[in-house]
Amino acid sequence: MTAVRPLDEAKRRAMSRQRTRDTGPELAVRQRLHALGYRYRVDHRPLPDLRARGDLVFTRARVVVFVDGCFWHRCPQHATSPRHNGAWWQAKLDANVARDRATDRRLADAGWRVVRIWEHEAPDAAVATIRALLGPPRSAPRAGAPPQP
């Protein structure tokens, strides 16, 4: 696919300033997992030649967590399609979703388990999903952390 650009410079600048890490939903999940004693890498490339970087990567357990934004990754509940420059946006967002699916397949083929969490999901529910794959943490929970069920 040929690289396309937004119609105006202001939109291009705004898009380039979008956070790729340390978003509110990502921090909420990270803080809860850390308090429970889980350790992980942040914004880490699980495979050396993979373009995608996991938001949380559990290298020993081979679990990669992506916290996806509803707009950029086409959440089935909250996806919107901008009217201005609609064809460009359609191609851009469709390419994001296709790249996500290709990344998931590539990681699965390499023996990794992929967890995709939508930004609107409750952090405690997201943590429960991740914990189901990981099992108990290897390190002791921090003092004052909520008890583990």
Explained architecture:
The structure is a single chain. This protein has helices spanning 9-16, 24-35, 86-109, 123-134; strands spanning 41-44, 54-58, 63-68, 113-118. 38% of the residues lie in helices and 14% in strands. Strands 1-2-3-4 form a 4-stranded mixed β-sheet, sandwiched between helices. It is α+β, with helices and mostly antiparallel strands and 149 residues long. Helix 3 links the parallel strand 3 and strand 4 (113-118). The protein has a single domain (19-134), classed as VSR Endonuclease (Endonuclease, Chain A, 3-Layer(aba) Sandwich), CATH 3.40.960.
Which descriptors would you attach to this protein?
149 residues, alpha+beta, Endonuclease, Chain A, four-stranded mixed β-sheet, 4 helices, 14% strand, globular
Q: Catalogue the unreliable spans.
A: none
Specify the biggest β-sheet: 4 strands, mixed
What is the CATH architecture term? 3-Layer(aba) Sandwich
**Shape category:** globular
| Beta-strand percent range | 5-15%
Q: What is the level 1 CATH name?
A: Alpha Beta
Q: Termini, distance in Å?
A: 48 Å
- For the record, what is the CATH homologous superfamily label? VSR Endonuclease
Order of SSEs, N→C?
Answer: HHEEEHEH
Proportion of residues in helical segments:
25-40%
Instruction: Classify the fold: give the CATH topology.
Output: Endonuclease, Chain A
Tell me the number of structural domains.
1
Strand order of the largest sheet: 1-2-3-4
- SS field, number of helical segments: 4
Question: How many extended strands?
Answer: 4
From the alpha carbons, calculate the radius of gyration and give it in angstroms. Answer: 17 Å
- Structural class, from helix and strand content? alpha+beta
Mean pLDDT: 86
